[in-house]
Write a structure and sequence with these properties.
The protein is mainly α and 424 residues long. The protein folds into two domains: 161 residues, no CATH class; 198 residues, no CATH class. Helix 2 packs antiparallel against helix 9 and helix 5 crosses helix 9. The longest helix has 39 residues.
Amino acid sequence: MQHEVRQSDVYPKLELLNLNLNLETGESPPSPMKNKGRMTNCCATILLILLFVADVFTDIACGVELILNDYYTYGYVMLLLVLAPGVLAIIGELYKCCVYEGFCCRNAMDWLYLLVSPLFTVIMMALGTCHITCQREAVYLRSLEGFITAACQIIFSLYIASKGTLIHSLAQTLHYLTTTDPEQIQLFEDADRPPKWFWGLIQVYSLLFSFLSLLQTVLYFNECAKKTTSFWRFLVTIPFYSCTIIYRTITFTLLLIFFKEYVLIPVFLIFLFNVISFKILGLDLPRSIVYGVASIVVPAGFNRCRNPKLQPLGYVTDEVRYGERSPEQMELFRERSKRFLAIHHIFGGLVLGVSLALMWIMLNYSEMYSPLIEWTILPLPFINDYVLPVIAIGFLGSTVFTIMYCCTILCCFEDEYVYPLTIH
């Protein structure tokens, strides 16, 4: 039947038409809560895309600026770190084709898209709001960027700044903050700063967005991909992960400055303890190695499921059946997570604490690092009075929030621990 549609009743007619179609097909009309959830999901996706683009852009811009300022090695290393997730993703795709599907399978050329990994990641993040396959691929690539590029960029940015590699605007700002000459202070405050001057702070922007990127990655990897999320969860988890990231990245930076290549010793020990911890939880060796690398800076993967055939990092949602777990199994899963967090915190703190103590003794009671200016622009009183106390405060905060996490999150949220029942 044809109806004459007037401009004044277009929207009521459309709503009535949608309702009739839903009744004929047996589908219920979309509820306001569902539409609100979709809108929230779209807004969150847009924010995540903006954060990802800002992180990649500032890293690339910082690398280019370092090259233009004649710091060629540092600039090229920073650009290589941006390319690292794409290279690792290509290796993972080739490995998956060879082991699980055969190199001549129909998906053997999927890795070609990863040649432009940042652009492909943005596309997958945009399409992930309506396609679960795209969502898995997006969070997988996003996690590689967070755990590999962002974590390394934080340490590397702190390292090159501590070595005195500063772009002009940042150098002027640090001189203003450290000088006691009133004339120099007044000259800096009265200076006219064009937009190009603020662009010279690109090292600060890169460091800030790398920190936010790593924090967002670990929050999603450990907390957001759950059956439920709440404000109280983030009230505990954000300071917990932030304190851990801060004290570990600053510690690794100091060890890299003074131990150079020997910093790989404490890094390897932490990685080894992480792998052993995941094996105790019942994970297979490949998964334990992947999670062990991701957990060097911040704990990751201690409450993820396993299905390496679909995704190397455990991003699987449709295979999880929360109702299949008994209360005894839930208690076992929570105890496993507590066990991992305890091992991660205690052994990581022990390894880094011993390394820092050795570094402090050599700095203060030997001539190994004399003159100190050849190693870092940071004066010894500044390291003793500010840097080391910040590390100690970060470790203390991480300890407190680890206990809070185990006593609150792991005890109050039950349907979220999806480890296999077998313990190796």
